[in-house]
């Protein structure tokens, strides 16, 4: 394996890469896998997935990691950049027969050092609730596969709830469960609750409360992934039909949609402040969608195959330059610097809120996100102000993000199709003045939106008691918006109340011709939106990548061979070594202060120029 910058072949596996923050390094001693470390034969297996939880362990090793490889599920203490991984001592290990784990999610709200609640979805459609610390299996949902017989594609706890969780299947259906309720011994009967364009929501029709509480049918084909907004109020779904659909989770109202350039969408994530959504999929692109404006604001082209995971980095996303850090020599001050990364991440969100609430734009903003794909490459991207606010003069950004005009779509994209709305005109929004021409990028067509009357929640009392109060943060005050439909035959159906389950078979799905959406606000042409170039694009694995998670002191990737890799952020390895040296070797105070001064001097010298 070769380090970045020293290789002669394009197919070399990189063990480090450099960004403006410094050098990210692969920690080979922190690699997690099956205990024998033998590469897994991934033919016909489900993607390797990774979940993290912190149990607030007083020993300082509070992070726990869960990952699936084939028919196996492992649960370890995650030591990250601090110590080498000990694969000989898993906290829990499970081997399943007849089915394979496909996805999993920890309940961070109820996790303690003595107990954690872990949901595991399976290829045969079941969902299991286990406690890997107690080595217990609490419940099995959809055990007889009466609710759905298809593979579980995504499972997540509802934010702010210890009992509610949402499950997506390759059938295109999602189900809302309550861990306290049973699933019943017969197939559920449903009653129509809400219907809109290419989605329906049903409640379970039963004399006694049972699972599932709700059934969502979204789009056509598999529902590949969903993600809750940071405040838990909205739900973003991506499907095999190539559509991103964003719903208000409480009122089950459709907020907005977006169409991929071609092919299915496979992954989705929210920005830390909930203002932007990034998707990836079979068009080899990452697409940035504005939640406020309900429109595509940028695409990124760097992958050579399908994009399997996208994720924002809350620890690198920046809003303003921090004041210079000065060290006074005391242990208390140095401990403050130990937690600098965490404080920065926490303060980033408040500064993002402040930045988005003012029109004066006193500071610059940069969002960092990453993506991995089946091309075995990791890409990092910066979303800067010249993309986010094209109607304002360009600021002097300190990033390496390039914006270029794309004259042709990626290979195989079928870019010769024409649409009915391919103009590059700009519609101004109230209170904003727009210059006649945008430097460095083509004009961006704003989505045509209309204000709608406030819509009441459609949850009945039995469901509303468990569903309506998840919000943990405050999103922005917003006006309800919806797209003007470019084709009248793709009409939106209003709220329908059905008294008979016989009417369920009458629900029709409207197919949208990709050639008709290209060039509209649903799917702008490549030349109509800025095209981002990745900051870095490195081959880091032999097999397709399936995981990308940003943590405070590292980022974590995983490939289909079953190897979970830890990449230390710039300066974190030496930094943690110094901290552990203070804790484990009991360095005298005078020597400790000298080491602190030397270490900070080293960081200042190594820091990239801000000019």
Automatic annotation (TrEMBL):
Record's GO cellular component terms: cytoplasm; nucleus
InterPro entries per the record? WD40/YVTN_repeat-like_dom_sf, WD40_repeat_dom_sf, WD40_rpt, WD_repeat_creC_regulators
| Composition skew (Basic residues), residue ranges | 479-492
Q: Repeats (WD): which ranges?
A: 258-290
Q: Where in the cell is it found?
A: Cytoplasm; Nucleus
Major localization listed first in the record, in broad terms: cytoplasm
What are the start and end residues of every segment in region (Disordered)? Answer: 341-361, 402-448, 476-497
Q: Which UniProt keywords apply?
A: Acetylation, Cytoplasm, Nucleus, Phosphoprotein, Repeat, WD repeat
Query: What SMART domains does the database record attribute to this sequence?
Result: WD40 (SM00320)
Q: Where is the signal peptide?
A: none
Q: Which Pfam families match?
A: WD40
UniProt feature, compositional bias: Low complexity: 418-432
**Subunit:** Interacts with USP12; promotes translocation of USP12/WDR20 to the plasma membrane. Component of the USP12/WDR20/WDR48 deubiquitinating complex. Interacts with USP46; contributes to the cytoplasmic localization of the USP46/WDR20 complex. Component of the USP12/DMWD/WDR48 deubiquitinating complex.
Protein's name in the database? WD repeat-containing protein 20
Q: Which organism is it from?
A: Polypterus senegalus (Senegal bichir)
Underlying gene? Wdr20_1
């Amino acid at each position: 394996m070769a380090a970045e910058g020293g290789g002669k072949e394009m197919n070399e596996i990189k063990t480090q890469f450099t960004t403006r923050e410094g050098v990210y390094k692969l920690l080979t001693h922190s690699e997690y896998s099956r205990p024998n470390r033998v590469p897994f034969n991934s033919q016909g297996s489900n993607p390797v997935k990774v979940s993290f939880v912190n149990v607030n362990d007083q020993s300082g090793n509070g992070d726990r990691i869960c990952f699936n490889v084939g028919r196996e599920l492992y649960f370890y203490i995650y030591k990250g950049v601090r110590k080498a991984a000990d694969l000989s001592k898993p906290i829990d290990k499970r081997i399943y027969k007849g089915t394979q784990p496909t996805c999993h999610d920890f309940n961070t709200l109820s996790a303690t050092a003595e107990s954690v609640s872990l949901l595991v979805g399976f290829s045969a459609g079941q969902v299991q609730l286990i406690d890997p610390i107690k080595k217990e299996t609490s419940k099995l949902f959809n055990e007889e596969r009466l609710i759905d017989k298809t593979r579980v594609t995504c499972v997540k706890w509802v934010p702010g709830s210890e009992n509610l969780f949402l499950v997506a299947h390759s059938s295109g259906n999602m189900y809302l469960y309550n861990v306290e309720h049973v699933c019943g011994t017969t197939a559920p009967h449903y009653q129509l609750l809400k219907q809109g364009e290419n989605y329906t929501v049903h409640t379970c029709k039963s004399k006694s409360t049972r699972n599932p509480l709700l059934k969502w049918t979204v789009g056509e084909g598999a529902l590949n992934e969903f993600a809750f907004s940071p405040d838990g109020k909205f739900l973003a779904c991506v499907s095999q039909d190539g559509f991103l659909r964003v719903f208000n989770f409480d009122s089950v109202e459709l907020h907005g949609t977006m169409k991929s350039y071609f092919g299915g969408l496979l992954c989705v994530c929210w920005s830390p402040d909930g203002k932007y959504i990034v998707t990836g999929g079979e068009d080899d692109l990452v697409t940035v969608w504005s939640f406020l404006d309900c429109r595509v604001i940028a695409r990124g082209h760097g992958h050579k195959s399908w994009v399997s995971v996208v994720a924002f980095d809350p620890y690198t996303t920046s809003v303003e330059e921090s004041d210079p850090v000065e060290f006074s020599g005391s242990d208390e001050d140095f401990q403050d610097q130990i937690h600098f990364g965490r404080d920065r991440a926490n303060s980033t969100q408040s500064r993002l809120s402040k930045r988005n609430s003012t029109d004066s734009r006193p500071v610059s903003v940069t969002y960092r996100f990453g993506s991995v794909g089946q091309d075995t490459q990791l890409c990092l991207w910066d979303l800067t102000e010249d993309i986010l606010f094209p109607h304002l003069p360009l600021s002097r950004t300190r990033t390496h993000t390039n914006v270029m005009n794309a004259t042709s779509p990626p290979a195989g994209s079928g870019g010769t199709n024409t649409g009915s709305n391919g103009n590059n005109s700009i519609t101004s929004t109230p209170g904003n003045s727009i210059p006649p021409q945008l430097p460095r990028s083509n004009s961006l067509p704003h989505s045509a939106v209309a204000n709608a009357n406030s819509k009441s929640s459609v949850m009945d009392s039995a469901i509303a008691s468990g569903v309506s109060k998840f919000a943990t943060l405050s999103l922005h005050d917003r006006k309800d918006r919806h797209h003007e439909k470019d084709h009248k035959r793709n009409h939106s159906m209003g709220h329908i109340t059905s008294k008979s389950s016989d009417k369920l078979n009458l629900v029709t799905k409207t197919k949208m011709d990709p050639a008709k959406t290209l060039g509209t606000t649903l799917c702008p042409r490549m030349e109509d939106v800025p095209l981002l170039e990745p900051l870095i694009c490195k081959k880091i694995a032999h097999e397709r990548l399936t995981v990308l998670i940003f943590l405070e002191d590292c980022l974590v990737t995983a490939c289909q061979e079953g190897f979970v890799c830890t990449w230390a952020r710039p300066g974190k390895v030496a930094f943690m070594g110094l901290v552990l040296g203070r804790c484990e070797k009991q360095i005298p105070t005078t020597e400790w202060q000298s080491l602190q001064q030397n270490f900070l001097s080293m960081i200042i010298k190594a820091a990239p120029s801000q000019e």
